[in-house]
Inverse folding.
């Protein structure tokens, strides 16, 4: 089994910054893509950013130029650096990882528990 543990959420003023971290642990052979999603009140979960195992990032247009996704493969950790935060960024942010286990050949998708990001105006 695999666990994803998130940290870094909190309350900030508009224009401020936060860095989210998500560390994967457990019976891991390889982690392919990792990503960040968010879900705001009354909204569906949406993709924020994804990053390949080689470190190639993709971010959605609404956060492009403000958010940066990165990863440290030696720590099985993905980060989301959030700058110039806006009230509309307020949401629960969830970490995601595609994992191949040490035993077996199947790939599985795991999710973190979510961390709250609140941006005040």
């Amino acid at each position: 089994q695999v666990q994803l543990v998130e940290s870094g959420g909190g309350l900030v003023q508009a224009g401020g910054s936060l860095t989210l971290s998500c560390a994967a642990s457990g019976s891991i052979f390889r982690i392919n893509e990792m990503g960040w999603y968010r879900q705001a009140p009354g909204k569906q979960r949406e993709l924020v950013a994804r990053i390949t195992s080689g470190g190639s990032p993709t971010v959605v247009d609404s956060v492009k130029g403000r958010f940066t996704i990165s990863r440290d493969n030696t720590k099985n950790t993905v980060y989301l650096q959030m700058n110039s935060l806006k009230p509309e960024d307020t949401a629960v942010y969830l970490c995601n990882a595609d994992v191949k286990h040490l035993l077996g050949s199947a790939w599985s998708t795991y999710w973190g528990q979510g961390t709250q990001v609140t941006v005040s105006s």
